[in-house]
């Protein structure tokens, strides 16, 4: 039962991170088109964030279909939760 709660927690956290990251990417795109000189740090985030979002989505789907080992789920849970601190 505890493992099921961990899985639900991981999937929910990934979904939240994906949603949050998508919103940031959208805002960065808006910012880029409204301002001529985008700071270099924002350009860096804008190029890396789509990869992170894609990886999070793939991880979430793999967990949902059960193709992720329990050991991996246990390691992922604190790492993903740490993103919200």
UniProtKB/TrEMBL annotation:
<dbReference type="Pfam" id="PF17107">
    <property type="entry name" value="SesA"/>
</dbReference>
<protein>
    <recommendedName>
        <fullName>NACHT-NTPase and P-loop NTPases N-terminal domain-containing protein</fullName>
    </recommendedName>
</protein>
<dbReference type="InterPro" id="IPR031352">
    <property type="entry name" value="SesA"/>
</dbReference>
<feature type="domain" description="NACHT-NTPase and P-loop NTPases N-terminal">
    <location>
        <begin position="11"/>
        <end position="83"/>
    </location>
</feature>
């Amino acid at each position: 039962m505890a493992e099921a709660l961990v899985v639900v927690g991981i999937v929910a956290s990934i979904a939240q991170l994906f949603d949050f990251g998508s919103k940031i990417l959208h805002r960065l795109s808006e910012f880029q088109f409204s301002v001529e000189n985008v700071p270099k740090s924002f350009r860096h985030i804008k190029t890396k964030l789509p990869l992170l979002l894609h990886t999070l989505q793939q991880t979430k789907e793999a967990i949902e279909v059960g193709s992720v080992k329990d050991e991996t789920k246990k390691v992922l849970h604190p790492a993903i939760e740490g993103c919200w601190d």
